[in-house]
Amino acid sequence: MSEPENPPAAAPEEVEEEEDQADEGDVGDSQAIESQLMKNPGMLAALQDRLNSIVGTPSGYIQSLPKEVKRRIKALKKLQNEVINVEAEFYKEVNALELKYAPKYSQLFDKRKDILNAKVEPTDEECDWPSDEEEEDEEKDEEAKLAPESQQADVKDKAKVEETKEAGGDVEEKKEEVKGIPSFWLTIFKNVDMLSEMVQEHDEPILTHLQDIQVVIHETSPVGFTLEFHFEPNEFFTETVLTKRYEMRYEPDPEEPFSYEGPEIIKCTGCTINWNKGKNVTVKQIKKKQKHKGRGLTRTVTKQVQADSFFNFFNPPEAPEGSESEVDEETEALLGADFEIGHFIRERVVPRAVLFFTGEAIENDDYDDEENDEGDDEDYDEENDPDFNPQAGSKPDECKQQ
Question: The domain at 86-121+180-319+330-358 falls in which architecture?
Fold first, then answer.
């Protein structure tokens, strides 16, 4: 009796081929799924959110270090705290140096104020500074000299007429004498974006009376500085000086010493403005209808609410006392913006006022980030460059890879 025949076993090569085909199918399916997911905007957004959530998360490396290494890290942190304390001492010395030089600055700024407000007329020597206008005048003078003698008088008269028209005056009318530099500080406020956002149309007539802004640095505690806005007597309010005081902290916060980045403003205090009747631009009257619940009658009432104005600058929100005090987001944002504006006026606007008036300081700020990018946009044509040497950039024989 013959033995039953067993079915022949599949050749190893055939089995492997089947497995490979299965793997290729899985890969193809996963790639297709991946392709579909990547085309789904919602899925991409969710993936991006997931990636953003893990950026900066601890890798666990520090926690995995041996105890003796963690001990050394503590020593480095203690040294870092000492570095921060030295940095705080440095900034205190800087403040002392500012106090030392303050009288020299004040002397120069007082001269500026006198010229602005027509108390003195600068001498020819004091006005000896090159300007674009002078170059244009020199070109016109040269043009007049080159013209025939019979036409020189006509050229000069034409130049005078053009100057009058450029100034916006009437050729026939005699120009009125202008004293000092009108609207000097108002022009600065309108030139600087940070300040122009604060200035409303109804503020402008008031700011034409602003004669000077001075910075007073405080030597005794609480240390900081005061901005003094000096006005000429005007019809809007009774004061001639409006003040804004900023209190500063030079030491690091004991609770968060490693967050120290130098002196910071921690508090600001404005002043009371005694407005003349009907001249207060910081408030406005609005009419509102009210309906009686029982009778159904309506009446119109007038309410006084705060209006947008630069002069709200002198009525800032109160900063809570103590580092642990909670501040709502709106108040925190208002205080942050106020501190930034006060610092900017002290550090930039007051010391460089004339450059903000002419716009030169603003132009310099705009070009700071681009000064090192010169020539990046130009196309380079190596074929037409006589100095181009393709061999110059190659490695010497001894430096070539073996």
Answer: 2-Layer Sandwich (3.30)
